[in-house]
Specification:
Blueprint: E1 8-13, E2 24-29, E3 40-41, E4 58-61, E5 68-73, E6 88-94, E7 99-100, E8 106-109, E9 125-128, E10 135-140, E11 156-161
Antiparallel strand pairs: 1-2, 2-3, 4-5, 5-6, 6-7, 6-8, 9-10, 10-11
């Protein structure tokens, strides 16, 4: 994502290991992406850590309030590799610190009790509707039915997220 001051923020999905229990990693470029700062754990604006599985995430800048948002999975406990891929959250990016604003983390959706433990709120498409200015998110809910043989039975969900302008 391009930050307001022109720097580029790159965030990678990372897996868990004995020394890194499920984190996102980031670098910043001040020269248009020719070079990157050393990678580091991506954190909240207060310096605290958060857990995130090796799953897709996305940045979007709102066209009205011009704030940068991140959508992805943040888990309450250390993930195991790629999962769990729930809950799905959205947060504003502190562009000076290149960090997530902890106070803005907002739940988009979570795993229903009836779903399989491998339920996914991941692999989504996200864009801003230029007429309503809502962020529209589409995702397929893999694992919504319990049982290994049912993992591909899934609905496509549509979320319309209203942003404070």
């Amino acid at each position: 994502a391009e930050l307001k001051d022109g720097r580029l923020l790159v965030v990678w999905r990372g897996s868990n290991s004995a020394t890194t229990p499920g984190r996102k990693w980031f670098s910043v470029s001040s020269d248009g992406g020719l070079t990157l700062s050393p990678s580091a754990e991506w954190k909240y604006d207060d310096g605290s850590s958060f857990y995130s599985p090796s799953s897709i995430h996305q940045f979007v800048r709102h066209s009205v309030n011009h704030k940068l948002y991140w959508v992805g999975n943040i888990t309450p406990t250390p993930p195991a590799g790629n999962g769990p891929r729930y809950p799905l959250v959205m947060a504003e990016v502190d562009e000076k610190l290149a960090a997530l604003k902890k106070s803005t983390v907002t739940l988009v959706d979570d795993r229903p009790d009836s779903a399989d433990v491998n339920y996914q709120l991941s692999n989504f498409s996200l864009y801003e509707n230029r007429e309503t200015h809502q962020l529209e998110l589409f995702l397929t809910t893999y694992g919504q039915e319990v049982g290994q043989g049912n993992w591909m039975n899934a609905d496509c969900r549509h979320y319309a997220l209203k942003i404070e302008e």
